[in-house]
Amino acid sequence: xxxxxxxxxxxxxxxxxxxxxxxxxxxxxxxxxxxxxxxxxxxxxxxxxxxxxxxxxxxxxxxxxxxxxxxxxxxxxxxxxxxxxxxxxxxxxxxxxxxxxxxxxxxxxxxxxxxxxxxxxxxxxxxxxxxxxxxxxxxxxxxxxxxxxxxxxxxxxxxxxxxxxxxxxxxxxxxxxxxxxxxxxxxxxxxxxxxxxxxxxxxxxxxxxxxxxxxxxxxxxxxxxxxxxxxxxxxxxxxxxxxxxxxxxxxxxxxxxxxxxxxxxxxxxxxxxxxxxxxxxxxxxxxxxxxxxxxxxxxxxxxxxxxxxxxxxxxxxxxxxxxxxxxxxxxxxxxxxxxxxxxxxxxxxxxxxxxxxxxxxxxxxxxxxxxxxxxxxxxxxxxxxxxxxxxxxxxxxxxxxxxxxxxxxxxxxxxxxxxxxxxxxxxxxxxxxxxxxxxxxxxxxxxxxxxxxxxxxxxxxxxxxxxxxxxxxxxx
Length: 476
Prior knowledge:
Radius of gyration: 29 Å
Shape: elongated
Structural class: alpha+beta
Helix content: 25-40%
Oligomer: single chain
Strand order of the largest sheet: 1-2-3-4-5-6-7-8-9-10-11-12-13-14
Order of helices and strands: HHHHHHHHHHEHHEEEEEEEEEEEEE
Number of helices: 12
């Protein structure tokens, strides 16, 4: 006879998110073990409210709605954390709605008072596995295995133990991942050029003429101005990671993409990229360094290549907040205008914080300072840059994520052109809003709109554009 006695037979069938109808049987048996006594007012903290919350959660779980069960139970956790049945329900709802950390805490409270509760221990081990806390997950699965569980549970335990052995750091291994995407979009300024009005205003200012005079004396119809266009974007990328035992891993990541403009074909482009890097990660610290090469070739003949070196260090202050910094260098080469070639060195600091529980809001901020040094006597000289970015992400659930961003970039050049009164100074502000639908683990759909506006003390460099796109991605 298994030393699980009837408990294992009853609760082992509750493992996973598929058999929700078994929750009724599990909890009916649970009630006989811990009891529900007393009747009070229907307010938080009363026995009556506890019963109501549990019944509502059981209903949602039976309808395969773990998100709603989690939302029902989570707000009252501090009040009813001493009730084992409440904790078990909260753990089941949390693990099946994408909150493994909350699930692990809830199941630990159950196991603390009912150490032979096989269902809670099994789901606690699953939560540790989802959190990638493989040592603790392995320990719990081995404890379950030693209790001589039924055959179905033995198979599940053996599967998880094999996965832990494969995913843990005990053996060197290669991990291959990749993704492909297709996108369609529209840009109000596909050329990135100033409008004709800005162009005329800039020449009028430079030569102390009226705009009408400029139009009469110069043929501006041959110029390249702001122009709207639609586009199709296709891309594929991959990552090959070599994971060694311990904190070190190394990776290579190639990328390839093709952007095709509907009418402005000269602005269609082909992009190639490759990244080689190494990562050291241990407990709360994460150090990542890489070398990257990117090349963009436009159909009109111009091409740009960028070589980048980056070192990033992040530190996890607690489960909700993270701080970090970056040091970078980049060499920028322009085939058709080598006078613009430059090398950029920069430093930045960043931080993130997670607000809320079952529907968290993630806020990330970054401040960067960099210097862009001209190599071939650029007309405007060197450039100093200051950037500030804020990114917010509202995670409604595992499938639906809303996000937005605000970016500020100030660029100050060191040299004054003879035709201008002062060195060039640009300020760029960009806003973005988007929505991500995670259809399943492999497929996602992202819609995004952006507005970017650049203002300069030299009207020729004023520009604005709005972009909108829909992107379908497949990860493998």
